[in-house]
Amino acid sequence: MSVSYVPVQWNPNKWKYDAVLIALVVVYIIVFLRLGTPAADFTRPVDGAILRIRAFGSCAFLMLTVILAIGPLARLDKRFAPILYNRRHFGVMTTAVAFTHAMYVLGWYFAYAPIPRLEALLVSNTSFGQFLGFPIEALGIAALLILSVLAATSHDFWLSFLSAPVWKSLHLMIYPAYVFVVAHVALGYFQDAKSPVFALIFTGGALTVAGLHLASWFKERRFSPSTEKWVKACKPSEIPDKRAVIVTISQQERVAIFRTGNSFSAVSNTCAHQGGPLGEGKIVYGHVTCPWHGFSYKARNGCSPAPFTEKIPTYNMSLENGVLFIDPKANQPGTDVEPIIVEGVVHG
Amino acid sequence: MALSLLTMATWYIYAGGAVAAVFLTIGLGRLDENASDAWIFRPLLIPGVLLIWPLVLWRWRVLHRGENKLDRHRMPRAAQDRIALAFVCAIPLIIGIALISRQNPDALAPPVLLEAAK
Amino acid sequence: MAKEKDPFFVGWGKIPKDYKVFLISLTASIIAVFAILSYAISSTQSDPGDGALMGLTTAVGILQADPYPVLHVISSGRYQPGETIILSGGGKRGVVKRAAGFDGQVVRAAGVTMQRGDLNGMQLRSGKNGLRGDDTGADAFTVRVENLGRWRLTGEICDGKCLNGAMRPGRGLAHKACANLCLLGGVPPVFVSSAPVEGSEFLLMADANGKAVTEEILKFTATYVEIEGEVERRGELLIFKISPETIRLAQ
After folding, report:
1. With contacts defined as CB-CB under 8 Å, which chain B residues touch A115?
2. Domain presence at residue C90
3. Domain residue spans in chain B?
4. Domain check: are C58 and C108 in the same one?
């Protein structure tokens, strides 16, 4: 937002969110080390360092699994949106847990050798040509590097500095990162664990994430792009009051038509902040409000209310034979467009 | 090989440190009006600059010349769809490979005497 | 308070009542699921076996340098005369260089004992405190060597130190890089057979000529492999003189 930057824009919801995150990690690690491990059937105890490697490693995997499930879940069911709201904190916390895992690995498997740790990490296994015995450390390093870049560029400054499209492209690297993590586990601990319990949890988690993405992709596909000059949108009555309908007008562009009573306005579906889907938002206090982080805009001109200076493009519309049409040529962000007034429309 | 990789990584971080020093003290306030009086959040940006400093230099140049033509509302949606689909395929593939490769320690062949001692 | 007709969450605002119930139950279930998964994963970890470090000891015996340094015990507070001990150094290091001058001689070894099943090992203390020539006139004996024929064995190539109890677990794919580091550092490689061969499932590995194995085996460590080679009993330890070209992944 266009106010002076601070390290974190705290609000009560973020405090609660972070408290839950910390509780999640603390509960997981304590249960792992203090309750679960003593119940395991060991002739002699597993090394403390290896237990911590496993505890933090599996915790990071599960956290990343949840993070990647949030996006599609929020699209499939709006009630998940509040978890998405502070997903960046979830990501930073996961990076910290993954980093802890890596430090224990480095301080145990790669210490006490005649060569320095980082060098040992790189030279100890170079069998890149095989599946079994593949250097899983390389996969872990790749994932951790990506997570570090994403965590380090999670502040709003980076969004504004890199521009939302560049920032978004950078943060799409979370997908390869998860693929690396899955391969890291699949060719490592997954092969070692004799009990089917870990195999079930691991494959179940990873396949659920993949399945959710497939489901949300199918849901999105229903909005098919159009090449017509003016794009046919919908009947005014199809839009619920204070809500919107999303219309896809090209591969990159979507338009949200908002309704306030009997007045209709079209704005870009993409929030100027993180690219959130404005059309899944709502008119709150008279403003289009993003479902992700609550950025708001006036529907008729796409401008954020003062003191904020964010702007999004608007679109011209026409009403023909009781159907709304959109001019696919976007207006400059902040251009005022007279709303279309449709008398006597009810939601039906 | 491993050593030169580590040396390169070290130099990359050093270079990032130099970029961070200049960018966070001088460059930032000129580029972004929201940052001109904000100092407390700046140390938070150091890790990011260290990691992606070439990108920082590129954006710095673009913003400095006022060439920022990227449409904020045009997100990499097509790319996102392609990446998500590739992702959806990659996960079961990796798990499939891992399952096929999995060796069962309880089903290993017993020792076989090929030729008795002479 | 009346239920809102069309609830909507805004981060900076109040959470709608409908959402609140959902979120509280969601939060509680995520934490509960994490706790359950944590317990499920940790309580079903595989048994790392009985390998362990067993405290300090000394032993006088005959040192044999090839393929890797081992000690055939003459007398010791801990070991029985005739037992054979695999020697390694501190951390991920072997004692190949330190032992080179003592091949076939009676020496005095001191360090931390390691044991896993019938596999005995010792992590030598540094310098002369760990290994020196013995001048107490202990009675040397001729180490019995017996050829047991050519075998095809299935099992895992491990480093003889972590496997022996220096790490628990000290084998498996998660430990592969560590095993390789140990082997590169000169720790003796030990083959763990799928079933005992002539009484033992642990065999010290050597190349076909009875010398140290080459780095070729690093590709195959920590996986289950099939290897052919001559098996020989020296003292109480089996030596597996492998033909490297026969190594392949087990089915």
Report:
1. none
2. yes
3. 2-64
4. yes
